[in-house]
Amino acid sequence: MIPLPLVPRPQTFLGVPAAAAPVAGSAAIFGAVHGTPYVSDPVESGAETGPDAVRRAVTAACLDAGHWDFDFDGPLLNDGALEALDLGDVATVHDDAPGNRKNIETVTGAVLEAGATPILIGGDDSVAIPFMRAFDRGEPLHLLQIDAHIDWRDDIGGERLGYSSTIRRASELGCIASMTQCGIRAVGSARRQEVEAARAWGSRIVTVAEARRQGLAAVAAALPRDKPLLIHIDCDAMDPGTCPGVNALSPGGFTFPEMTELLGAAIRGRRLAGFSIVEFQPKADVNDIAATVVGRLVCHVLGHLARAA
Q1: Distance CA 229, CA 140 (A)
Q2: What pTM does this model have?
Q3: Which ranges form a coiled coil (predicted)?
Q4: Could you confirm whether domain 6-306 is CATH 3.40.800.10?
């Protein structure tokens, strides 16, 4: 077997076993630091990466994955009902966008082919484009994006695979049967034409205000159940008071309890095809708040997978 383009990390998520390849039935956690930068994006320094900051912070906060998790009234992984593995990080570098995309899609595809559930920790939102492309080889899916922005730009400065185009590119995949975009608020890169394009495609756009009026359980209940669900989170979906470590601060976002309610309601009774959470910026974090929040959201995904019927 040809080794996957993965780089082992010094610490795994919650201390789960490190692995060089996915295992059938497992939740396969991996990071992807670099995707497709815009020309104006600065080269990142050698400081701690987002995936590693999440691994460190959540592991310190949770002490031991085998301890009682009161969010699930039992150990997180349900006494071994779910096997979770940390594959490390996809091999990426700032200045090789084509190579980054190839490696992210290769790793994600290998996880899917093994019959495991891919769980990606980014990295800017552009890492989700090759992540989602890997699903295009398989069955149709419903997409739930939780984000402050709709990310429907066709290009910015001629770049069509950057982080403002993630959902536009997703809409072009044959596997995406429907999409719900929840948490939208304030001003981002979208202009009138992007909003009209999203609506013409059939995207269901749910603002934060509308989600709160409907209730998060009602938003989740409206997600179709006939096909697996792919969940994609941009950390700026959350209020800066909940998740300060983001690139684009936008007041009025979801709280942590709102996020976990929405995630739980979306996952229960559905088959989760995959999960990605991106746009965590460790340089902007405060006292590891955002790193811990991101880690706990991944924990909630694991907890629900461990209790899936």
Answers
A1: 9
A2: 0.97
A3: none
A4: yes
